[in-house]
Amino acid sequence: MANFAKPSVPRFSVDVYQNEYLPEGGREVNAIVTVTATGGGTLGGGLSPAASDGRPSAAVAIMVDCSGSMDHPPTKMRNARDATAAAVDTLRDGTHFAVIAGTHVATEVYPGDGGLAVASPTTRHRAKQALRRLASGGGTAIGTWLRLADRLLSSADVALRHGILLTDGRNEHESPEDLRAALDACAGRFTCDARGVGTDWEVKEVTGIASALLGTADIVADPAGLAADFTRMMETAMGKEVSDVALRVWTPVGTTLRYVKQVAPAVEDLTARRTEAGPRAGDYPTGSWGDESRDYHLCVEVPPAGLGREMLAARVSLVVPQPDGSAQNLGAQGLVRAVWTDDMTASTAISPQVAHYTGQAELAQVIKQGLDLRKVGDFDGATAKLGRAVQLASASGNADTAKLLSKVVDVVDAATGTVRLKARVAQADEMTLETRSTKTVRVKK
Known about the structure:
The chain is α+β, with helices and mostly antiparallel strands and 445 residues long. The protein has helices at 75-90, 121-131, 142-153, 176-186, 203-212, 226-238, 344-348, 352-375, 379-396, 399-405, 427-435, and strands spanning 11-18, 21-22, 28-38, 58-65, 96-102, 106-110, 117-118, 160-167, 191-197, 217-220, 242-250, 256-264, 268-269, 275-276, 281-289, 292-301, 310-321, 327-340, 409-413, 418-421. The chain is built from eleven helices and 20 strands. Strands 4, 5, 6, 7, 8, 9 and 10 form a seven-stranded mixed sheet that branches. Strands 2-18-17-11-15-14 form a six-stranded mixed sheet. Strands 1-3-16-12-13 form a five-stranded antiparallel sheet, with helices on one face. Helix 1 links the parallel strand 4 and strand 5.
């Protein structure tokens, strides 16, 4: 629960995988950038109680859906209370925290004084006592929950701010524009993991919340699994050591950065989230880090050059932007190169890493397209898209996604993507596939 190991900050490293060779006239450079953080407080399971600058390391707000639908069945609300209690138990001493009840309004459950409590045996006990008062009733307006979480989290001078959000229904008591405005207001201020319990919630709403706030999204189809899931989420949150890390990409004059995507552990397009960071440089937010590794796909368009020429197409580094507009450099850098050659073997080879993640991104896309087509009754289109998904999952070794696909289609031949749509599909299976469609596997070694 509490661990007073000496605080430490992860060391970051950057590795670039690409085929830098282009044919004469070639302009598109693709690279996979692997970012790895090691040696932080989570190494060997230790959890540091404070940031390296002496500030408390984290503040956490837990948002629990208490709308009327949480009473159907009655065990759902009880499971939500138990899950929140398990998350509170997982808080390390010194962490600031609050619990919010969410309906068509947001209500402070604990500590209830407009601020945050500081985790200790006493406050954890009091929080769990307060959870007994959680009761279902009212509607759902998730934007109000997020705005209250933001107000509470911003009241603490901490290194990391994180939210955990649980909902069981659709966001029916505020407009999509209100939710989007709340997400825009909270983006960059705290990260948030979102969970949908049961099968009456909207996948695109929950995944959209997690995407906007750089967290994870998942389904807990059986409410009995909430406590284990909340415990894992809180353990992961407690393992974060550095917040607000940005991937800074510099490109030379004459080049165009076409896109930047996270491709592992899940696909997330960061292109539109660029913040200008000086001449020819932009920052792409990646959220909070502990001991972990993530992969990013960069696509750069370079000006054509003669055979034998070479150039630096992009320089990638890691920074933590500061309020005054400066940035703390985390001391890791990777270079993306372009070399023009008449060696056809060299220039036509595709980097295994680039090929793999291009396939994983397509896999996520065709799953979503296939499920959308199935919902509107275009069964031929759905069969084609989901067949392609089966083929890609099989080729890349993405066994988890292949297993989820097998609950929606009957696989005739995985290698060729020959499938038949199942006549009956459990709603939980379809929602699980959609929610987890962006999860990827690393390149086979």
